[in-house]
Amino acid sequence: MGLEIEKKFLIKDDSWKNQLTTGVYYRQGYISSHPDRVVRIRTIENMAYLTIKGKTMGAVRSEYEYEIPYEEAIEMLTQLCEKPLIEKIRYKLMYNNLLWEIDEFEAENKGLVVAEVELEDEFQPIDLPPWIGEEVTMQPKYYNASLIKNPFSSW
Amino acid sequence: MGLEIEKKFLIKDDSWKNQLTTGVYYRQGYISSHPDRVVRIRTIENMAYLTIKGKTMGAVRSEYEYEIPYEEAIEMLTQLCEKPLIEKIRYKLMYNNLLWEIDEFEAENKGLVVAEVELEDEFQPIDLPPWIGEEVTMQPKYYNASLIKNPFSSW
């Protein structure tokens, strides 16, 4: 099984932008946004992925990801996925040997910026970067699958 | 896009078994059984597939199918899919140049036998075999995804 162990945080300020990093455009939608059985279609530039995620237990979640043809992903995003779609720019940067992914949301979720760190183990100590704010791992409203039903612009 | 055009029928009698045909065991479960966005995991012997199906319009439905690793399919069937799973033996036979698939259901759906024919075009004339009974294409209770919620044994 794929296991995804990650923690999610808000951002205190824009100082993470001082590191040289280039954002990549992500577009994604949900065929199922049920929290115990998420089915996501995602495009990253000209690549596309179908991902299935199980129930989140703390910071741990089962995850299965398959690369799929880009054209089929576009069809499913347009015709099958719940609307609105999620659009975001993802930046990746290293801080003390851990990879951080920072998502700047666009469209209905513009203004929301979230940082995620993927871990080997749920109890691994994390050296938090200075620009990290409140942890929101356990708050379902920050799940991308929740942001289609209740986008940041309506909070 | 994949387009699936098929019609579904009940069976009048067992005379289809006179043709030499060997059944293959199918096991499948649903990550989403929403009729407009079905996500199915299926194993056929030691092969496994992830299939996404859109809304049915008459006999036509969009379909996207991807082969996935067998072990991951088993994990998803066991841990993520709605229960009960669908188990059936599928027989394939040709009748006047059309391929018929006959599903004999097992477990909670034992006793149900359904024949499907895949078409090139919704309005293609079909030469029905003599053992074919009532057409049930438009009856949602015969969808496999419905048979997990309302199995044949409870009809």
UniProtKB/TrEMBL annotation, chains A, B:
<dbReference type="InterPro" id="IPR033469">
    <property type="entry name" value="CYTH-like_dom_sf"/>
</dbReference>
<feature type="domain" description="CYTH">
    <location>
        <begin position="2"/>
        <end position="149"/>
    </location>
</feature>
<dbReference type="InterPro" id="IPR023577">
    <property type="entry name" value="CYTH_domain"/>
</dbReference>
<protein>
    <submittedName>
        <fullName>CYTH domain-containing protein</fullName>
    </submittedName>
</protein>
<dbReference type="InterPro" id="IPR012042">
    <property type="entry name" value="NeuTTM/CthTTM-like"/>
</dbReference>
<dbReference type="Pfam" id="PF01928">
    <property type="entry name" value="CYTH"/>
</dbReference>
